[in-house]
Write a structure and sequence with these properties.
Blueprint (H helix, E strand, L loop, with lengths): L8 E9 L6 H9 L6 E2 L12 E2 L13 H4 L4 H17 L3 H4 L6 E7 L4 H14 L8 H4 L4 H10 L5 E5 L4 H14 L4 E8 L4 H7 L30 E9 H6 L6 E10 L5 H19 L8 E3 L6 H15 L7 E3 L11 H16 L1 E2 L13 E2 L5 E2 L4 E7 L4 E9 L6
Parallel strand pairs: 4-5, 4-6, 9-10, 9-14, 10-12
Antiparallel strand pairs: 1-7, 1-8, 2-3, 6-7, 8-15, 11-13, 14-15
Helix pairs in contact: 3-7, 8-13, 11-12
GO molecular function, one term: 3-oxoacyl-[acyl-carrier-protein] synthase activity
Pfam families: ketoacyl-synt, Ketoacyl-synt_C
Protein name: Putative polyketide beta-ketoacyl synthase 2
Length: 416
């Protein structure tokens, strides 16, 4: 077995359930075409709330991918995660035959920031409206942040190291880093990612306390980071799951190495302290570059956090300048999430999925709804830009103060 220093973590499978596509293929097609699917909120019970625009996952029937016995135990956020895990496993061609003899070699890690609000709200309504006997037995587990990890592990028979990163948005990247550390310590594969479902009435009400939430009712103007019209972000459902494997193990079973998780670093600078996030994010970028043994000028594209709050956007642009030097104004920057909304912990995992696909296809996807960039950044707008992409930087910040950066390298193989 390789030494810990030699055990590289590679991406072999991608599964996406997102507002712009309920498969990886449809997600990428909409992403590379710069299609915005932001629209008026239609979820039942949200009509009278101040949040008017979001990224909803439509056309998704969990029963198509998940057995009924799991559906009744779980919230919508776990439905997304389980469905995305199915797609990722199929994409990686990782089946039970590959790990039946060694189930402890496969682990599961997810990140979650909101938990199962829809399930919890429904059961509490039954408690107060009908009495305790009408509360289902799964209320105790379905809302919990770790529910997706547990259900994916149980359903797949994965008995290796399992965990959950209960965090803000940056937790999606932290979960990927946790998976890489797990592989470094000896695990062969990890099903890892994040999916969120923050558009139930209870969950929306909790978010209304965020000053950074956009309240505009025009989908084309509600989320426009790096512009003079930036007025906050819009939330979204969905997310992505990846199959991350030890490189030799993946190659040994004939899997395609789509990307390498090359480096990661994280910092904390405090809730909504966007000016302070400049130093914290720059420190995370430098740490990720050092971890990846990557020079700033090697970065071929940046997938930005792109919060859409003027102070936060300015801090991110300055952090890139601090960490990348003159290269910061030359490297292409993109934020495909402006077309889907921010799916909290799911957002940076979706960006990671898009980054892998961008490297494979040699194209930088555009930033929907953004035109008048007012920062010294080369933000890709309008249409996709062809480019040779070997190394990608993915950034994420959370409303509660977390900052994370991840460096990805292009893999040696490509999906057939």
């Amino acid at each position: 077995m390789s030494s810990p220093e030699e055990r590289r973590s590679v991406v072999t499978g991608i599964g996406v359930i997102a507002p712009n596509g309920v498969s990886t293929e449809t997600f990428w097609k909409a992403t590379v075409e710069g299609i915005s699917v932001l629209d008026r909120v239609t979820r039942e019970g949200c009509e009278h709330l101040p949040l008017k625009v979001a990224g909803e996952v439509r056309g998704f029937d969990p029963a198509d991918l998940i057995e009924e016995r799991y559906l009744v135990q779980t919230d919508r956020f776990t439905h997304f995660a389980m469905a995305a895990a199915n797609l990722a496993l199929d994409d990686a061609r990782l089946g039970r035959a590959d790990y039946n003899d060694s189930p402890f070699a496969v682990g599961v890690v997810t990140a979650a920031g909101s938990g199962g609000g829809e399930f919890g709200q429904r059961e509490l309504q039954r408690l107060w409206g009908q009495g305790s006997r009408h509360v289902g037995p799964y209320q105790s587990i379905a809302w919990f942040y770790a529910a997706s990890t547990g259900q994916i592990s149980i359903r797949g028979g994965f008995k290796g190291p399992c965990g959950v990163v209960a965090s803000d948005e940056a937790g999606g990247l932290d979960a990927l880093a946790h998976a890489a550390r797990t592989i470094r310590r000896g695990t062969d594969a990890v099903v890892v990612g994040a999916a969120e479902a923050p558009l139930a009435p209870y969950s929306v009400v909790c978010q209304l306390g965020y000053d950074d939430l956009s309240k505009l009712d025009d989908p084309a103007r509600a989320y426009r980071p790096f512009t003079s019209g930036a007025c906050g972000f819009v939330p979204a459902e969905g997310g992505a799951m990846l199959i991350v494997e030890e490189e030799e193990a993946a190659e040994g079973r004939g899997a395609s190495v789509r990307a390498v998780l090359a480096g990661h670093a994280a910092t904390f600078t405090g809730a909504s302290l966007w000016e302070e996030s400049r130093d914290g994010l720059a420190h995370a970028i430098r740490g990720a570059l050092e971890d990846a043994r990557c020079a700033p000028e090697e970065i071929d594209v940046v997938f930005a956090d792109a919060l859409g709050v003027p102070a936060a956007d300015r801090a991110e642009a300055l952090a890139l300048a601090d960490a990348l030097g003159r290269h910061a104004s030359q490297v292409p920057v993109t934020a495909p999430k402006t077309g889907t909304g921010r799916a909290y912990c799911g957002a940076p995992v979706l960006d990671t999925a898009a980054a892998v696909l961008a490297m494979e296809h040699g194209v930088v996807p555009p930033t929907p709804n953004v035109v008048d960039v007012c920062h010294d950044l080369d933000v890709v707008t309008g249409r996709a830009r062809p480019a040779e992409l070997r190394t990608t930087l993915v950034l994420s910040r959370g409303l509660m103060g977390s900052n994370a950066a991840m460096v990805l390298r292009k893999g040696s193989g490509s999906p057939s």
